[in-house]
Design a protein that fits this description.
single chain; alpha/beta; 8-stranded mixed beta barrel
Length: about 575
């Protein structure tokens, strides 16, 4: 179908309508099909190509990541429906030229003779006058584009001074991040969150009155400030922000970079030095004892590693460098092999084994994790099909879903397609979701996980007892099994024993099965059995390994595999004993 005449017809009509018009396909990908001229103006794009490059041609690309909720989920969310099928929509975004904007409007379903089932969005820019200036409309600080322009001009001037080291010695790029600020917005709402961002902007201006300051995006700020006394000032500012927020899991962190004074350094984009400051900031995000960090050359390797991961993910999947390993789960009462967890392992021919904590966070931050998770799920389905075809003993396999899977795709639709393709029973595929996903995306996941249950899948809660733990998740969600975080066994003392025992008792009261991760010693095993923990996973029994190696190990050790009737009987008995 020739789209050009169709687009011309659409432009003749929609370019006359007040506000930005955007047509989006009603699929999990939410592909943008058409935008009118006003949409290009809102996003300050000169051409449609610029607009599609900016947004990646997806609805999610219209806004900041923390504001994204699929359109279908928005129709059933607290955003509220208007009459005649219209729903209200509000989000924040950055334009092509770096201006920050609040966008609002309505959307509704349309059955188009040209495109089929689509969403039609009608949007406006709330802060047109301010957004087109050099100021960020939320905080009143410089916007990102104006900030980088002025910093570049300042560094150019300093490089021309009589003292070649003046720039390196006197000024520093600084990157600040308010960790876990999404939780603040979840609890208090976006507009209260914006009020807090304005307060932070005021604190920064008060501490650095003659410096360049911007809000880069969301809860990220940048400064170009004098070096003298900088570390002390930043610690004071971070503490002042923490005092304002008054939530212990939301803290301000700062990273300090260095702009090189060498003659060749002027060829580097000014943003490079703020990227380095961001690396320093990211290095202490999980360190509760530090609020400020300096960039050092060892951090440069993390940039290289990140680029490698992003550039090579698809190739690694295609060539089999990313493999699925399996770690067994053992029934505490019988000692039988009753299941396993599927885990991704990246083994590069040149670099060797890449630790999961080196590539999984990168893929999550880059919104590419669904490619990995889909690969793991399909490999598990192939294994289950292989076991069935060869009449091998079958055990359930659990697979992990990231919160981004629910934001960027329809995981249930994918799993259902794979189950149908390989003709495997749903019973043998278990879905694991971490607590962090539930805390940050509660409104979306309640419905999605309920759909998994309705379709015949068990849903497990992973990492219970981690830093995100909240008893509300057990009240608001329906789980078949709870996995106790391995950190509670890693630091095994009287306090951790009490916590684990309490979790097991609570789960039994609620009729939820319990599995403990991270068991490495006989002491762990004996304790877990004594308190009634049903299943155990950990290095005591086996490290994760390829399926064939795991099968050989169990055959050599003479381990028995739990049958389906045994599992059903033991699960039922556990619930009866809890009653």
């Amino acid at each position: 179908m020739d789209e050009e005449p169709i687009k011309k017809t659409l432009h003749r009509y929609y370019d006359l309508i007040a506000g930005g018009v955007c047509l989006i396909r009603q699929t999990a990908e939410e592909q943008i099909l058409f935008v009118n001229e006003e949409m290009l103006r809102i996003y300050q794009c000169a051409t449609e190509n610029e607009f599609f490059q900016l947004t990646k041609g997806r609805f999610a690309g219209l806004m900041e990541a923390e504001d994204y909720i699929p359109l279908e989920a928005r129709t059933n969310s607290r955003h509220g429906d208007l009459d005649e099928g219209y729903s209200f929509l509000t989000f924040r975004c950055y334009t092509k030229t770096g201006n920050y904007r609040h966008i609002e409007g309505t959307f509704h379903k349309v059955n188009s003779p040209t495109f089929g089932k689509i969403w039609m969005l009608n949007l406006v820019n709330k802060e047109r006058s301010m957004a087109d200036s050099d100021l960020d409309p939320v905080t009143g600080l410089l916007n990102m584009h104006a900030f980088y322009q002025r910093v570049q001009k300042k560094t150019n001037a300093l490089r021309k001074t009589a003292e070649p080291d003046a720039l390196e010695m006197r000024y520093c790029p600084v990157y600040l991040n308010l960790t876990n600020f999404k939780v603040y917005n979840e609890l208090h709402g976006i507009y209260e969150g914006d009020r807090m961002l304005r307060k932070i902007g005021q604190l920064l201006k008060s501490a650095f009155p003659a410096s360049y300051i911007t809000r880069l995006s969301g809860d990220n700020f940048a400064l170009f400030v004098p070096r003298d006394g900088l570390e002390v000032k930043l610690k004071e500012v971070c503490q002042a922000v923490n005092n304002e927020v008054r939530m212990p899991n939301i803290t301000m962190k700062a990273g300090i970079g260095i702009i090189e004074a060498a003659a060749s350094a002027h060829r580097r984009p000014i943003t490079t030095y703020f990227d380095q400051a961001k690396l320093a900031c990211d290095s202490i995000k999980k360190d509760a004892t530090r609020s400020v960090a300096f960039y050092n050359e060892s951090m440069r390797q993390s940039i290289t590693d990140r680029i490698f991961i992003l550039d090579n993910l698809d190739r690694a999947i295609r060539k089999g460098h990313i493999q699925v390993y399996y770690q067994p789960v053992v029934r505490a009462m019988t000692g039988k092999f009753c299941g396993c967890e599927a885990l991704a392992r990246w083994i590069d021919p040149a670099k060797g084994l890449l630790p999961p904590d080196s590539f999984i966070p990168v893929l999550e931050e880059s919104r590419l994790i669904s490619r990995l998770d889909c690969h793991v799920i399909e490999e598990v389905a192939k294994l289950l099909r292989y076991q069935m075809d060869n009449h091998f003993p079958m055990v359930p396999v659990s697979v992990n879903l990231s919160r981004y899977d629910f934001l960027l795709m329809d995981p249930l639709a994918f799993v259902e397609r794979i189950v149908e393709q390989y003709h495997i029973p749903r019973y043998y595929l278990r879905i694991e979701v971490t607590e962090s996903a539930l805390v940050k995306n509660r409104h979306l996941l309640i419905e999605k996980l309920h759909q998994f249950h309705q379709s015949g899948y068990q849903v497990w809660l992973d990492d219970f007892g981690s830093a995100y733990s909240s008893l509300n998740v057990l009240q608001n969600y329906e789980f078949d099994e709870l996995k106790i975080d391995q950190g509670l066994l890693r630091y095994f003392n009287e306090d951790s024993r009490k916590i684990i025992r309490s979790i097991v008792l609570m789960a039994k009261e609620m009729g939820i099965h319990v599995l403990a991760e991270g068991a490495e010693t006989r002491e762990h095993i004996d304790f877990l059995r004594a308190i009634g923990c049903e299943k155990i996973q950990g290095y005591y029994y086996s490290r994760p390994m390829p399926y064939e190696l795991l099968r050989e190990q169990f055959q050599e050790a003479g381990w028995q595999v739990e049958t389906l009737p045994e599992e059903q009987a033991l699960d039922a008995a556990a619930k009866l004993s809890d009653a």
